[in-house]
Amino acid sequence: MEHKPSHEELTRQRAEHAAAWIAGTLPGKLSLTLSEALVLGLLRQEVRVFFAVLGHGSTELGEVLRVYQEAGALRVCGVRSEIEASHAAAALRWVTGEKAAVITSIGPGALQALAASLAPASDGIGVWYLFGDETTEDEGFNMQQIPRHEQGLFLQLAATMGRAYSLHTPLALPTALQRGATTVDHPYRPGPFYLLLPMNTQATWLPDFNLAELPPVQPFTLGAAEGDYARAAQAIAEAERIVVKVGGGGRHAGPELLTLLERSGGVLVHTPIAGGCIPYAHPQNMTVGGSKGSLPGNYAMEHADLLIAVGTRAVCQSDSSRTGYPQAQRVIAINADVDDATHYHATLALLGDVRRTLARLNALLPSAGAQKAAWLTACAEQKSQWQAFKQERLRHPVLVDEYWDGPVLTQPAAISLATAWAKAQGAVCFFDAGDVQANGFQIVEDERPDQTFTETGASYMGFAVSALLATAPSTAWRSPAMALSP
Fold first, then answer.
1. Is pTM beyond 0.90 here?
2. Could you say which of 39, 118, 284, 416 is the most buried, measured as most Cβ atoms within 10 Å of its Cβ?
């Protein structure tokens, strides 16, 4: 049997492997540790950025990353908080599309990252999580594990939040990577994937490991929904007051949404993370709606007799916990998730890719839709009132504050100044949870998607400031192809 090399030999071999990876000259088989095979598998999944808080539960993995970073194959960003690491990884993927992994030690550190992963889980962002875990030999309590006499407790905990896998068996690595890839790169509901790394299996020696078993990136696509489009078109023709509610799944369907509005005579209301799906200035854009919505957004939701829900979930603050559409008689739900598409009663669900489904529906609508003049006029009046309401507050940007014992900028004024500057610079804006976040998505006037990123899924404090860390290790952030400018 082939023996594991010494530490010095192992370091030299890993440096050679990293250089061969960069050059594209890796052989088909290698003898290596499980941790190095994992790193190569993640590189094959195009994961080159790692946000890490290393500890005794991830020492072996950290050593592999050290060597590969020195060779220039990847970038490790060491931070001091696992929550910070999670937010930065989520922001990097959300803004640039670049994948990242979060690395923690065992116990409390992993638990903090798990808590912070509520943000990508809620907002639909694919992030890899690599958690150190207790040994597989059950020799007694490991420090920092869940202190109960049961097996695989942290795996159970992680699996409650999302998809999870433990590398209890080293040669199960290809399956773990495949399941992770289908989770973080899911075509319509990506999310976090939790890979648990027992401390004793990380250094397991894999002689003559077949690298072809490491799964490559496989793009996923969905087609248009198969459904009763004729019935949907009839419902649109018969309705007098249509509201199109757009969520995160529809924020990049701008051309199709504009055609739908033109041909249906409806108005659009969006969720906080879908701002800019159509230009704010468009006369049929009633802006954000819900318990923290706008005057026109809530007016449209309260008075519509037909709801067309596009790529949106029934979130409490967005649909006011099922009370947001009191006059809606029918619902057309365009979504790729069956649970979200069938949330409301009297729903015609069209399950498939949002853009392709909208295009197919639009083709059945009249080229110049029935003009619902009274509805459009009423909604336009509400939007005019909303603009006046906002301008009145911006007209008095400074007020005397008792706490600071002097004049200070109001929140609306500060937000308006900051977002106007960012728009002029072609920069994106992050909003943290709290009152500034709510004021922010009511004030911003985005003309395109992805100008504003507001973590409304979990409303996790600290997301915005941690998101700025994503600029440090990323090459995509500074790439000409990045989605940061018009």
1. yes
2. 39
